[in-house]
């Protein structure tokens, strides 16, 4: 009887333990993607990007003599129907670790087992399973550096090859059309602008990894903080959709380390472990994504009113603080933002504007094509000061000195802000094509004055911190 391969955030063919096990079972394999309520709930840009990834994978599966079956509905019902339609005796999938997916998967595993169907979950989204990494006293890590020390020398399984062929069933079950799902429907901005910045699929991700390791990783430790330079891997997007596995990135870095590019490659592995750190924390404390990880922060007087003019200005990239606006515009045009600038815009929102970090978390979840539930939550809580191993709240980033230090020649700011430039580059002009119609702006509009200056924002934030009731 066939094996149903339930694909979710593992849109690749190589280093895919669940696919590998399904193919090795000698049984026909039926790959399926289910648009269920957990997937329906994701933000506009990641959902649109997911649609691109699904379409790409479907073609690759066809090259291997297989197909991707698309079904919409509650995962349990869809799987039950598919089992009935195909006589499948097993369902395999790669594990996910966010609270909603875990609750769903646990329940489905039980229900399938009760029906006498083999339900099996596999590794693949992480380097180390959350239950495999423990502190000396048996808990999970709440501080990054000791976790890094624990795992840095651990062995990670070598990436598996893609199966040469995927055994097909004699008859395929029916499938929805991807277009009918309209996964891009919630994108109220120029998807066509963003499309030009998307590197789609497993082959593109592997090419980028090769290029990064050959040309960039040696200088990664020195270059990774400068947003105008192409100094980072930009692999967060394919990692999010599972178009590349973290194990493949890890092994590529290890090879570079042994080849002599040690400092940069070690730093790159360390960043991959930040992703693990975020996932392990989310697994052990699911509230990481929903509320202050340090609960004493519940008493802090954040603003939660999204309709405030300053919040709108922040979202639109019109705060009048150029490094902040450049980041928010990069996000509109590309669906991504450089890590250094994510920290700066997050600090400006949570400190200078005194807004709850959840406003920023939600905006990023809606706008980032590399949206990841764990890294996004940890990133926001880290900057806001409410998270594990967080920067102290009173350390308020000065966006002006940050810009001088990390964008000394204003190349990044000029790349994204057209106003005031006689001959703005295409990237900066693309913003006006990309933004939602209701923001309607023109490159000739005047650049705004700061909605809140650094001095005033810093003072208000520190004042609130000093008078807090915890
Ligand atoms: P590289 O510098 O090449 O790093 C390699 C990989 O390591 C990344 O692809 C990523 O998987 C991982 N990584 C690097 N930095 C971090 C980090 N700080 N935390 C966790 N993993 C990391 N990352 C996301 O993938 N999705 C998000 O939704 C997300 N939201 C963020 C929100 C805020 C407020 C902040 C401060 C950071 C956020 N990050 C997020 C982390 C980080 O900014 C991105 O992972 C990084 O910019 C991706 O670029 P890159 O692939 O070129 O990274």
TrEMBL record:
InterPro entries: Crypto/Photolyase_FAD-like_sf, Crypto/Photolyase_N_sf, Cryptochr/Photolyase_FAD-bd, Cryptochrome/DNA_photolyase_1, DNA_photolyase_1_CS_C, DNA_photolyase_N, Rossmann-like_a/b/a_fold
Superkingdom as given in the UniProt entry: Bacteria
Domain Photolyase/cryptochrome alpha/beta: 1-127
Keyword Flavoprotein: yes
Keywords per UniProt: Chromophore, FAD, Flavoprotein
Entry's family note: Belongs to the DNA photolyase family.
Protein name listed in UniProt: Deoxyribodipyrimidine photo-lyase
Keyword Flavoprotein attributed: yes
Gene3D superfamilies reported in the protein's UniProt record: 1.25.40.80, DNA Cyclobutane Dipyrimidine Photolyase, subunit A, domain 3, HUPs
Pfam family, one: DNA_photolyase
UniProt source species: Arenibacterium halophilum
Needed co-factor(s): FAD; (6R)-5,10-methylene-5,6,7,8-tetrahydrofolate
